[in-house]
Amino acid sequence: MSTAAPVIGVLALQGGVAEHLAALDRSGAVAKPVRRPEELADLHGVVLPGGESTTMSRLLHSFELFEPLRERLAAGLPAYGSCAGMVLLADDVPGAAEAGVTPLGALDMTVRRNAFGRQVDSFEADLDFTGVAGPVHAVFIRAPWVERIGPGVQVLAEVTPRGSGDQPAAGRIVAVQQGRVLATSFHPELVRGDERVHRHFVHTVRAG
Ligand SMILES: NC(=O)CC[C@H](N)C(=O)O
Q1: 142 is in an annotated binding site
Q2: Which domains occur in the chain, in start order?
Q3: Which of 35, 79, 82, 203 sits a CA distance of 20 to 30 A from 179?
Q4: 38 catalytic per annotation
Q5: Cα(51) to centroid of ligand 1, in Å?
């Protein structure tokens, strides 16, 4: 790609849109909200924010964005999904049909929604993250985890066990990458002043 800043869209139907736009802006990308199919045309990459995957699925269909986005992803558009965005990028989500979630199938993985359950509904943890130097502070909010990955998928981060005792979250896969598609269970866009995960994605987009 050229040395010009890549144009990265943020799906702007629901959820943490402003936070992703700001983080991308600080990471050397030209960030723009996407609400209409024609706004997909000039993108070098796309971000699917956190929020509620059921609502986002419904809006993707009513804004007639689902099929054009699915096609762009199938044709190799680099993508990053956080939390609900991770759910939407998966190709297998148990209970999806009953919940009204239609995954886009851009990543060969099974993702379980709201996986951490009531005990650890929302929590924060420091993680080792492949490709990022130093621990990443991760904020989980009714987060999914990755239950199965296909052969082409790399694990970037798991929840690190702490001390002893029962830790339902420990060892769970919470960040993955397949080619130029990235997904995290957590929300780097909520940690102000730390754009390392977004920079990793922008770097991945530029590497194409
Ligand atoms: N913070 C989030 O994005 C929550 C995701 C939500 N539980 C879902 O499945 O869509």
Answers
A1: yes
A2: 7-206 (3.40.50.880)
A3: 35
A4: no
A5: 5
